[in-house]
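Tutorial handout. Part one gives the primary structure; part two gives the three-dimensional structure as tokens.
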Amino acid sequence: MLRNRLRILILTFAACFGALAWAQEKMPEQGAEYAGIAQLDREFPPGSIQSMESSAQVQGRVPQLRSELESEYVKRQNACYKKFFATRCLDQARQSHDSAKNALSRIENEASLFRRQQIAAEKEKSIAEHQAQEAAKVPERAAGAQAQANKAATHERNQLDQAGNQQQRAAKAVQKRQQTQEKIEQRAQERTQAAQQSAENQQKYEEKLRNAERKVEERDKRLAEKAKNSQ
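Part two.
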């Protein structure tokens, strides 16, 4: 009697364990609930985002996919808690979630990077075009400024003409006197410098004569001594 009960208990436990194992085998494949992210990953492999249209398309789909990812992850965690092998199920769910999240982040980062680079390139192009336009305007502005300067000079000449030739002659006379005075002072300075130079030359000449006379005296003295010694 006891043996029969023990056999029934063993069979019941085996049947329950088999049912649990069958249920575990029927779990959905990892990542099946993240099909949207897998599809996006296939559409945009690494380095494939090369247009603003693709970047905008990715950035438009990412928020919804991220929301679905987190929602599905919560659902899968709740389902794991009802299973016999809950720890293993949770690990698989986490791995699947992290893998999908990394793929989504990679695509989003590439889209954002391309958009930033494109905006920076367009900004640099706009600055360069603006600088080129400003450079092209420089000759025109210079010509305008020169025209204004010529107009002002003409007006000033007309004003001087209207003031009368007498004032002009007076100004010219003053200028001429100044120039004459400058020439007189310059000539006086030149004469002073010439006199100084002449004095220096005379002094050098006299010094040269004295040196020559001294050398002659020394030579005569040596000859006299030589003649004396030879006697």
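Part three, for discussion. Residues 182-223 form one domain. The two ends are 175 Å apart (CA to CA).
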